[in-house]
Amino acid sequence: AKRPVFYTGGGVINSGPAACQLLRELVDATGIPITSTLMGLGAYPASGENWLGMLGMHGLYEANLAMHDCDLMINIGARFDDRITGRIDAFSPNSKKAHIDIDPSSINKVIRID
Fold it and tell me: Which of 5, 20, 75, 102 has the smallest number of CB atoms closer than 10 Å to its CB?
């Protein structure tokens, strides 16, 4: 991928401090930019060099643009809810999507995963 993005949510927070630490290590090791839902704020520090900001209807333009233009979206612990996706047919139309979640019913529930 040339423009990958981590998209993280409250599932990382709910998984505890060890999960947050592993996320930080993964982002630092890969250098991939990261954004988060409101419920996922704090899993990766806002002062981190790969932090894009919160995304969604109440998020930052830059974070939303990065998600729209990425070629690989790696979702960790987020739901693809309508405050993030907006119109499903226009949500990051050219990206491959991967989804990591403890709840298998969340995968492919809203957005089709590649």
Answer: 102
Q: Do residues 31 and 3 touch, judged by C-beta distance below 8 A? A: no
The pair of three-digit structure tokens given for residue 50, joined into one six-digit string: 């790969």
At residue 97, the 3 state secondary structure works out as: strand
Q: CB count, 10 Å around CB of 53?
A: 16
pLDDT for the residue numbered 77: 95
33-78 confidence digits (pLDDT tens): 999 999 999 999 999 999 999 998 899 999 999 999 999 999 999 9
The 10 Å CB-count burial string (b at 16+, else e) for 22-38 is ebbeebeeeebbbbbbe
Strand blocks (E) in the chain: 4-8, 34-36, 51-54, 72-76, 96-100
Tokens of 114: 């590649």
Q: Specify the DSSP class assigned to residue 15.
A: T
**The length of the chain, given as a count of residues:** 114
| CA 27 vs CA 17, 51, 58, 88: distances in Å | 15, 9, 24, 27
